[in-house]
Amino acid sequence: MTSLPITLTINGHRHELEVDPRVTLLDLLRERLDLTGTKKGCDRGQCGACTVLVDGKRINSCLALAVSHDGAQVLTIEGVAHGEELHPVQAAFIAHDGFQCGFCTPGQIMSTLGLIAEGQAGDDPERIREGLSGNICRCAAYGGIVEAVLEAQQQLAKADRRTAA
Amino acid sequence: MRDFDYIRPATIPDAIAAAAEPGSAYLAGGTNLLDLMKGGIASPERIVDISRLPELNRIERLDDGGVRIGALVRNADLAYDPEFAKSYPAVAEALLSGASAQLRNAATVGGNLLQRTRCSYFYDTASACNRREPGAGCDALEGENRLHAVLGWSDACIATHPSDFCVPLVALDAVVEIEGKKGRRHVTLEEFHRLPGETPQRENALEPGDLIVAVRLPAEAASFSANARYLKVRERTSYAFAVVSAAAALVVDGGKIRAARLALGGVAAKPWRARSAEAVLLGADANEATFASAADAALADASPSGDNAFKIELARRIVVRALISALSGTPKRLPALPASPFSNIPGVRHDA
């Protein structure tokens, strides 16, 4: 199969690429574009380590063919901070020990950004746990992760109020 | 993954013409197909990407009071559509009890109907599987089979259909709208999926090239909105397929059941409509004794296909509990754990 031309906007940068149709969005990010923050865990949609936002929605990039997402806006963990300034979700994961080994953390953070944008969980820890059940943490840092999500939401809400005022 | 041709047709007729060629597979959300391709269980020569076909991503209210759900509507978009969730709460609850948030953002309505069994012998290409390779035999029969079918199975295949979404849909008389080489036709969801018999590889009513374009619910489906629930037992709290599940929907007036719908998931190769149980419920007093009789009727023909006799009693209890929870009323907001037996249901004993 010949390569196919696609265009992706990744973390605000436009990329024009020729890709083999078999290449997943995950492998394209990691192997072609050296964006290795997005992790490959199971590669079968079961662990959530590869979570990215595509057109604002969290998906498993291991189960997405890059060609099928021609024209999409992709946000990965590399595009979350503003320069040296961490995003409130990143800062909260550090403050609350929302990880141990850190392998699942980029996926946890991208999934949290999706969860907050969806607006379904609110400040209910049970709804947050359920909303993040697609992200496995083998170190079982779940307690810290839920605390981090709760604090990040509060910080983001405060920032919104400041912006509005 | 084997090499394949990738095409992205612009119209439905172009898609059907391309997919009618041998070795073709449609790609929509890809959440099941890519998994199957990585494992070598599916190896299409041609991928027909339908994810951008126009007009298949809409939820339309029909003049007759029904609803038409486009085949490309994402699971999450359907479950969180306020009007849809209010009218068909058991469908929304089933959707949100399935998979993970990431998968629900990608997986589509049509793809959910067409997802393959999660039988581990089907997934393991070193094992014999009549569904994957007709005539090869079935290693599940003498294998790890505690999660396999207890209704409608055959010696050729004891796999179950994994969908949650399809369970309340079949209870509510959903109809599958299919476009093929000979035009458009409608097949009830109850008839859409097939039991294995001697041909487990024939999983549904689709012919080569056929494309699911929509799923319809008739007007009557919304009449159950005040008393409709989905209940699902899993081996972990979230993000797992059903061991057994049930969708129950009632219309109750003056303590009598005026209309009843019941379907089971995780028990057969298709979403299992329990019509004999509905006959027991219709016109009877709405109480636990009636529900127990209905559960007995629903499982009357069940038999273990292996180490899974427990699923028959489990299914009876899930039916009773789903009916009690339906009777106690659809909650204003879905519980934090949709369809979970760990969610508190008023009026239901915890050991029921």
TrEMBL record, chain A:
One of its GO terms (molecular function) is oxidoreductase activity, acting on the aldehyde or oxo group of donors. This is Xanthine dehydrogenase YagT iron-sulfur-binding subunit. SUPFAM superfamilies: 2Fe-2S ferredoxin-like (SSF54292), CO dehydrogenase ISP C-domain like (SSF47741). Residues 4-80 form the 2Fe-2S ferredoxin-type domain. Pfam families: Fer2, Fer2_2. InterPro entries: 2Fe-2S-bd, 2Fe-2S-bd_dom_sf, 2Fe-2S_ferredoxin-like_sf, 2Fe-2S_ferredoxin-type, 2Fe2S_fd_BS, Aldehyde_Oxdr_Iron-Sulfur, Beta-grasp_dom_sf. It comes from the Bacteria. Keywords: 2Fe-2S, Iron, Iron-sulfur, Metal-binding, Oxidoreductase. It comes from Rhizobium loti (Mesorhizobium loti).
TrEMBL record, chain B:
The keyword Flavoprotein applies. Residues 1-222 form the FAD-binding PCMH-type domain. Keywords: FAD, Flavoprotein. SUPFAM superfamilies: CO dehydrogenase flavoprotein C-terminal domain-like, FAD-binding/transporter-associated domain-like. SMART domains: CO_deh_flav_C (SM01092). GO terms for molecular function: FAD binding; oxidoreductase activity. This is Xanthine dehydrogenase YagS FAD-binding subunit. It comes from Rhizobium loti (Mesorhizobium loti). The lineage of its organism: Bacteria, Pseudomonadati, Pseudomonadota, Alphaproteobacteria, Hyphomicrobiales.
